[in-house]
Prior knowledge:
Four copies of one chain form a homotetramer.
Chain A: E1 2-7, H1 12-22, E2 27-33, H2 42-45, H3 64-70, E3 73-76, H4 82-92, E4 96-99, H5 109-116, H6 123-126, E5 130-131, H7 134-143, E6 146-148, H8 152-166, E7 176-181, H9 196-199, E8 204-206, H10 214-225, E9 232-237, E10 244-251, H11 258-268, E11 275-277, E12 295-302, E13 307-314, H12 318-332
Parallel strand pairs in A: 1-2, 1-3, 3-4, 4-6, 5-6, 7-9, 11-12
Antiparallel strand pairs in A: 7-10, 8-9, 10-13, 12-13
Amino acid sequence: MQRVGLVGVTGYTGMELIRLLLGHPKLRLTQVTSRKESGRTLQQIYPFLQGTKLAELVIVVPDAASLALDCDVVFLAVPHGTAMEIAAELLAKGVRVIDLSADFRLHNQETYEAWYQVTHSQPALLSQAVYGLPELYAKEIASADLVANPGCYPTSAILALYPALHYGLVLADDLVIDSKSGTTGAGRKASVGTLFCEVSDNFRAYNLGKHRHTPEIEQELSLSAGRDITLSFSTHLLPMNRGILTTAYAKIAPGIDPLEIRAHYEAFYADKKWVRVLPEGILSETRWVRGTNFCDLGLVVDPRTNRLIVVSAIDNLCRGASGQAVANANLMLGMGEETGLPFAALMP
Amino acid sequence: MQRVGLVGVTGYTGMELIRLLLGHPKLRLTQVTSRKESGRTLQQIYPFLQGTKLAELVIVVPDAASLALDCDVVFLAVPHGTAMEIAAELLAKGVRVIDLSADFRLHNQETYEAWYQVTHSQPALLSQAVYGLPELYAKEIASADLVANPGCYPTSAILALYPALHYGLVLADDLVIDSKSGTTGAGRKASVGTLFCEVSDNFRAYNLGKHRHTPEIEQELSLSAGRDITLSFSTHLLPMNRGILTTAYAKIAPGIDPLEIRAHYEAFYADKKWVRVLPEGILSETRWVRGTNFCDLGLVVDPRTNRLIVVSAIDNLCRGASGQAVANANLMLGMGEETGLPFAALMP
Amino acid sequence: MQRVGLVGVTGYTGMELIRLLLGHPKLRLTQVTSRKESGRTLQQIYPFLQGTKLAELVIVVPDAASLALDCDVVFLAVPHGTAMEIAAELLAKGVRVIDLSADFRLHNQETYEAWYQVTHSQPALLSQAVYGLPELYAKEIASADLVANPGCYPTSAILALYPALHYGLVLADDLVIDSKSGTTGAGRKASVGTLFCEVSDNFRAYNLGKHRHTPEIEQELSLSAGRDITLSFSTHLLPMNRGILTTAYAKIAPGIDPLEIRAHYEAFYADKKWVRVLPEGILSETRWVRGTNFCDLGLVVDPRTNRLIVVSAIDNLCRGASGQAVANANLMLGMGEETGLPFAALMP
Amino acid sequence: MQRVGLVGVTGYTGMELIRLLLGHPKLRLTQVTSRKESGRTLQQIYPFLQGTKLAELVIVVPDAASLALDCDVVFLAVPHGTAMEIAAELLAKGVRVIDLSADFRLHNQETYEAWYQVTHSQPALLSQAVYGLPELYAKEIASADLVANPGCYPTSAILALYPALHYGLVLADDLVIDSKSGTTGAGRKASVGTLFCEVSDNFRAYNLGKHRHTPEIEQELSLSAGRDITLSFSTHLLPMNRGILTTAYAKIAPGIDPLEIRAHYEAFYADKKWVRVLPEGILSETRWVRGTNFCDLGLVVDPRTNRLIVVSAIDNLCRGASGQAVANANLMLGMGEETGLPFAALMP
């Protein structure tokens, strides 16, 4: 058993990590931290953990030295800005870190500071961090000390368009990414805007043109295309807990045979078991990936408009956060990427 | 009081018409028809009508002669294909018709037959029908005998982009319309795909590249732009009853000052009380129009991508169907367009 | 037009009052107050009011003297404890008051203080206040200066059992009232417990054995039965916005013919248009009363257990709060009780 | 690996069995049947199974001889009436059966026929069948050839009240059981009444006084109390997929110290890991058991009314059907009851 720690247990990604670690055969959660809840057991703050093997684990105040003693890898499930400080302390003590915040996702410090309106206190670590998308960087993740776990929206968007840009199937200068997310993506902080009665029976767009996940998507898709990409990325709030569906639009490049596009996607993801290219005529649904690490891709080639439309679905808490973090831990610790991760969606 | 009839009372648009007519000061519902439910009273099939003035109205089998005796205007809330036959009979008897189906929305018979896979039995009526979008055709509607009530998606999409194309603010050859609809849009027929447990806690795309509302949107936006438009129109199913949110993307035309776009929209809709151009920074939400005839437009000019994004929200059953039908009846019968239509959204 | 004021505009009952007043032909909203939002217009805090006649009304700091100048009746939509102070000030200035809080619902000061854990600062007003349930106290309401608008749960529970106890159809010492409420009942204050992701896809009981609406129900049903009643009242939280469904259980009294029970209910509510005794075999549904002032009663006489079960449905925001408040204002101002109140449920 | 078969794969309980078997280390699904879908693979009817080990399993027409060759135990997930025939055939061929329908739950043939309005064709098997509630009958289940898997509502109700009646803590003649269920309980058959738009944003009671699960609850609680019990059992439909919450009311028996009730419950369930008696002050929530086999019991002793109120929560598809069936299979095949069953709820 390898030992892992969790810094920040009170949010939805912390909760999801606990769910996944409860079923993991080779990772043992040895420390959980929260300033606010320190001294209480997990089952005291989460009654649904009564009767499980983690029920009596006592929450402690985060302390790098103590985490270093107890953990081989530490997950950071705290807000950006806070994460960079803790990450630096842990790395200095030789602990490997998987950061679920945005602090180390962008390679460019200026881009980070411009979009997040925060000064980065650990710029030296930016080049050291590996972007934790296993389909693209499995080898680098395996040997990394610091993994920047991807954002939820970017996971769905990058996997949707990466092969198309990589193979030059579509034009890189006319991308529209229209994403819709369940409300767990908004976090677990008390606020009027995310009250049940403000979200239920409603659908709305938000942060159009300025969502902070935009540069992360552009960074990876630019790497894919081999050129700088600027794209439209729009976010919407769904009246449901989990799930992101991204509908991505791209113009098919001149000279590309539309009938070959599917084969390219299937080839690109042939040995990636978490990405499922759905059969012709089948489009992704968020429920099909609920509670899993899958990213489902439905492909539509539209001859009328000469567009490729990719419909990508993930569970934002699992594949978009904690499940991907566990996959990264698996890779870092030399286990099979899929160890302990559920394959069966909770349906319906 | 003017007398109106309703052919097809068992679907959601029929139900919504009854709701609106219950509050209408100048329209009296004199006949409702359903082959399946004939002989029963409205409150027998809809217990929520007990205690209202329409509770005891007896449902009859549809009969053009009888409708002609009792009604000044008849609403058709029956499937496409069926509607064209009844419309022709009613018009022949001198009754004015508002058809909520798709049968008379497309001016071009071939386009209709290609997208709907039905032979049009009344092609002569196509040129006589007026497209019932009051913001565009109020005058023609007032004198029409046959009004083709617009589709729900097209209402949201056309109002979103009409001014931009009309004034040449955006390029006409690169439009992406990403729409999301509540499930009432799928009708009230028993089917596994629209069971509660198949829709709840789920979000999915459907009919990408081939939704039948596409040619209707293209027809009206082509008229707006003065040239033929082909566009991407995508539809998604929301786990909620009412509401459509459309996110429309267009490249800003060369030479256009992005700062003038809002002013053009405000000018175009200045005297249209049902279209609300929301203030800078405010984006549409489906709940804000729930139960009303409003179409809310949130405008985002994105300088990074040089795109105009319009977020358009309607209640698909009210503005997207029965409320618009009542507005059309108001116009046809010489009343104020807004007579009897609710201004206050049911919030939350 | 009569002039009304609203103290407390930022909660769900304030929002609902605005919806109802927008459609009211004889009440004009002349003042709205909120300490926090003063200086802003209604449409600035509620964008869905753009384009309505109340859009530009400016919110002010509550001031009894100013309210007295502008209003014939004032609605208080503020928390208990706060309401009693403002009510006293307004009454002292000759303004009639409808208090939507709990401050004046209980006739007995000690009971109030025991359940609400607050000292009542205006005990002299308790005897002056009329309990604003129109079916029981229409005459007293008409001449009242201070109306205590009933709680949402009590409205559903009292109307469900009043006739049974009044006519001695059931035993008074064995009542179980199991209620389920939509989440608007929990108010519009930021809190983790009522976040969307904590309420959605979940159902739970709360406050069993100690809900503050218990003494209010016991007070009115004791009056009905002519003896002191102690009963079990349980509350549950539904993952939906509006609606209360109460399932009330009572043992049929010896000597009562079960077949006569329905007739007694129909007689009791014969001239009460907001209470609908549903036909045999039809049970109440919350959607059937959505947005209306109806209280629907479904009656089940169970010969196996010798129990009467009454299923009562209301819209907690309309009939359970603001709609009932408008009905009370109508009565106080000498209009028909139903003036301006919607009869048509928003279905579905 | 033990081999299991599934007769009836197209409903929600079949779907849930597949989810659970995908994660089970010792049960291998060797045959799935459906008359309607025979010839197709599991992933063809359930695209969410793509990429799992069961994806390519081909559905066949049910045939007892073939099932007997391939399976040690067969799960029947078909409607009552149908199940009794298949069960008899399988038993005759020496296959052990877990029947998820109601056909063998009631020991008394007349009671079955009266409530289900069906003639029982296999009355001889009724006495052979074991009621598959592991907390009560683990030993009998282990050696049974025919297990009658309990109904969902009865599972929640029996576990809620069994200890109270067993120890004589409450009166047996005054029980009220008010249950609320997610909509998966209504099955996966196309019908207008369970369409999304008929269930969403709504709450209603149904089948009051005549739900078929009543005699099943009465049978087991009568055994617990040692006397015949007649009780009120009411069912309601929740706008969510999974979960049952049962609120059970009982009068505390004379001479019982209310403070001892909790201890009795804790003792009764001390070695039953799937039943969690929640701490004082904590009430059950359906989400806390989502996807698991837990039954959570929240206890409230109300001194005002001298009542014990038990709030019981299960996942109706897992603990109330397929999870319980797997636990029964585990017992029958000599494995630990909990083998392969998830302990971690999908939260939120």
